Each structure stands twice: as structure tokens, then as C-alpha cells.
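Support request, please re-run this one:
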Amino acid sequence: MRIVVDRTRCASTGMCEALAPDVFEIGDDGALTIVQESPAEDRRAQMESACMDCPTQALRIDD
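Re-run finished. Output below.
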């Protein structure tokens, strides 16, 4: 599993960071950084929630 962000859609609202701060981080510059591009498979449900809760639908999971 790999987390991918569409930078043209990302508004850096921080919803993903609130759900998984060890995977997503909004930097001081306001840009989203994916800290762990390939989280463990046992976190799939959490990553799916982060993707679904993204207000701009900028996140996806690639298998």
C-alpha cells in the first residue's frame, strides 16, 4: 500500500494529519508532506478513512 497525494487538489486542510499525524504532516509552509508513503497494511482502514475524509479528494491508495 502506498499513499499518493494529488498536489493540484490538496488544500492542506489537515484532516489527514488529524487522523494519522505519523503519516501526514502539514509543514510550516502550509504544504502537505507524506511522512510514511507506505504505512503498514494493518493501517489500511485508517488510511482509507483519511482518503475518504479529504475534502478535496486529493489522497488515494495505490496497491
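Strands lie at 2-5, 24-26, 32-34, 59-62. The longest strand covers residues 2-5.
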